[in-house]
Amino acid sequence: MERVQELHDAPLAPLTTFRLGGPATRLLTATTDAEVIDAVREADATGTPLLIIGGGSNLVIGDAGFTGTALRIATKGFELDGTRLELAAGEVWTDAVARTVEAGLAGIECLAGIPGSAGATPIQNVGAYGQEVSATITEVIAYDRAAGETVTLANAECAFSYRHSRFKAEPDRYVVLRVRFELEDAGGLSAPVKYPETARTLGVEAGDRVPAATARETVLKLRAGKGMVLDPEDHDTWSAGSFFTNPILTDEEFAAFHARVAERLGPDAKAPAFPAGEGLTKTSAAWLIDKAGFTKGYGSGPARISTKHTLALTNRGEATTEDLLTLAREVVAGVRDAFGVTLVNEPVTVGVRL
C-alpha cells in the first residue's frame, strides 16, 4: 500500500460541518486515486469496516465514533477542456463552481456555496435553486468494491432521482473517484433561471438568462441569508444544510395531507405543492416544520433549529450527536402528528439511526 497519512484514535468531529462525532480507530488521508483504491482494497481484504469521508457536510457520526478505518478522500484535480469538466472526488465543490463561472460556463452556477466535495455530488444528486448535478454529469468514475475494479458509469447508469442515485442506493459498493460534466458555453450567461426565488431576487422571469457570475453571487447571498454558507463564527452554519428532504407524496397521500392542512390551519390554507412526476407531488419540508410549531431558533439545548432556516438543525457549540438526534426525532414526530407526513433525513448517519 502506498504511504498515506495515518492516525489512530483520530477525532472525526473536525472533519464534519456539524463538528460532531467520536473518534475512528484509524484515519487514513488519501491524496491520489491509487491511494484511495489501495486503502479500500486493504479494508475489504481484511474485513475492516470502512467509512468514506469527503467534505463531511452530509455526515452525522455517533458519539461513540467509528470502529474501523475512516478514509478521508483529499484528491485534487480540476481539468477543463472546452465545456467538458473533470473533477477529482476530493476537490472542494464550491471552489470548482467558482472556477467554471470564471471560465464563462453555465450549468452549475446555482449550486454555488454548497459545502462538501465534488465526489459527494453524484451520490446525493446535489441540487439547489433549480439545478441538479444530474443535469450536467456525463460520467462517474468509481471503484467498484464488488468487482474489485475501477468502472466508468454513464449518466443513465447512475439512476439519478431527487437527492438519490445508484451510489446512495448501494453505499457499500462504489467509491467515487472522479466526476465528469458537460457544461454550456452561453457567452458568459447562466443556464435559464428556473427557481422562482432566484428569478425574483434577480428581477427576471423564470427561463431568462443572466450573467453566470451574477447568478452565482445571488445564490451565495440567498444561501448566506439562510445560514447555508460555511462560516466558523456562525453557529447557524454548524449544520448539514437541509437536514430533511422535501417529501414526495402520491396523489392519495397528498389528498390526505391536504385534508390535514385544512383541518389544522383552516380551509383556505394551502401547502406548497410542486409536480414531481406522474401521480406525485413534492411539498416543502421547511413549511411542514414551521407549521408544526418548530420555528427558527427552536430548542433550548445545545442543538437547535437554525435561527435563519427551519430546515437546518445546528450545533450551538457544545452539542453531542445524541443532542442533535433528540431534536431531529422531536421534529419528525411533531410533523407526523400534525400532518401525517414522515420526514426523511438527508445526511448519512454513521453508528446511529434517526
UniProtKB/TrEMBL annotation:
Localisation per UniProt entry: Cytoplasm
Ranges where the FAD-binding PCMH-type domain occurs: 20-186
UniProt superkingdom: Bacteria
GO BP of this protein: cell division; cell wall organization; peptidoglycan biosynthetic process; regulation of cell shape
Residues annotated as the enzyme's active site: R163, S242, E346
Reaction(s) the record says it catalyses: UDP-N-acetyl-alpha-D-muramate + NADP(+) = UDP-N-acetyl-3-O-(1-carboxyvinyl)-alpha-D-glucosamine + NADPH + H(+)
InterPro entries: FAD-bd_PCMH, FAD-bd_PCMH-like_sf, FAD-bd_PCMH_sub1, FAD-bd_PCMH_sub2, MurB, MurB_C, MurB_C_sf, Oxid_FAD_bind_N
Cofactor: FAD
EC id: 1.3.1.98
Entry's Gene Ontology cellular component terms: cytosol
Gene3D superfamilies to which the protein is assigned, alphabetical: 3.30.465.10, UDP-N-acetylenolpyruvoylglucosamine reductase, C-terminal domain, Uridine Diphospho-n-acetylenolpyruvylglucosamine Reductase, domain 2
Main subcellular location: cytoplasm
Molecular-function GO terms, alphabetical: FAD binding; UDP-N-acetylmuramate dehydrogenase activity
Pathway the protein contributes to: Cell wall biogenesis; peptidoglycan biosynthesis
Keywords: Cell cycle, Cell division, Cell shape, Cell wall biogenesis/degradation, Cytoplasm, FAD, Flavoprotein, NADP, Oxidoreductase, Peptidoglycan synthesis
NCBIfam families tied to this protein: murB, PRK13903.1
Cited function: Cell wall formation.
Family of this protein: Belongs to the MurB family.
Record-given protein name: UDP-N-acetylenolpyruvoylglucosamine reductase
